[in-house]
Amino acid sequence: VIYKSVDEINGYHNGICSAQIGANADIHVTIVNLLNTKISNFYSVNSNIEDESKTLFSMVEFGGKYNVVNYYAKLAGYKSVNKLHSIYLGKEEQKIDLNYITELYGEKTNVDIEVNGALKDKARKNFKGTIDFKTGSKKAKGKENEYCTLLSDTSYSKALPMLLCTEADVEGNHSTASGKVDESAVFYIMSRGLSYKEAVRLLVKANFNKIIEKIQDEEIKTEILQEIDKRL
After folding, report:
1. How far is CA 153 from each of CA 11, 14, 40, 123, rounded to the nearest angstrom?
2. Predicted confidence (pLDDT) per residue in 148-186, tens digit
3. Which of 23, 50, 123, 200 is deepest in the core (most CB within 10 A)?
4. 51: DSSP letter
C-alpha cells in the first residue's frame, strides 16, 4: 500500500489495516507513506498471528505534517513470528509519533522490531516500542532496536523502548540511540568528489538499505529511494 498526495493539498488521512493471519502462513505487508508535509496522517495496523506463521511488516514513514502510527500485533500461536521493520524521514516541522506494541502469548514466539530514521530542520519524533511477554509464552524471544540520525541541531528525537513480562522463561532485548551523521565518513565520501549534501544523502540511504532491501517490489523500492533524494 502506498499513500501519496499532491504537494499543495492540505487535509487529513485516516486509515486502518487489519490482518487475521492463519496457521502456517508466510506474509509480507508493505505500507509506504509518501504524503506531503501539510497533511495530518493517522492510521493503525492490527494483526493476529496463529501457529507457525511468519509475518514481515515493512513500513516507510516519510509524509504528514503530523504522522501518528499505531501498530499492534498479537502472537497468539505456537512458534508464530512477527518482524516489524520501519524507516522514517522527517523534515521542516514534521511531527512523527510511532507507537508499536507486540504481545506474545504462544510458546516459542518471536518478535523482531527494527527501526531506523533521520530528522532534519525542526522535525520531531516520538517512538515507543513495547514487547509484552504474556503468561504462557515460554521460550519466546523478542528484540527491538531503534536508531535516529539527527541532521540538524534543531531536530529532536525521543524514544521509549519497553519490555514487559509475566512469564519466566523468555528472552528480551532492546536498544535505542541517536546521533549526528559520522563526519569522518562524510569527509571520506567528499574526498571522492561528492558534495556534503550528496555524502549525507548516501549515508542515510546506507542506514535505510537494510530495511528497504527486504521489500520485494522493485518499483516501490525505486520510488522510496527517489523520495529520499527529494526530501534530503
Report:
1. 29, 32, 25, 10
2. 999 999 999 999 999 999 999 999 999 999 999 988 999
3. 123
4. T
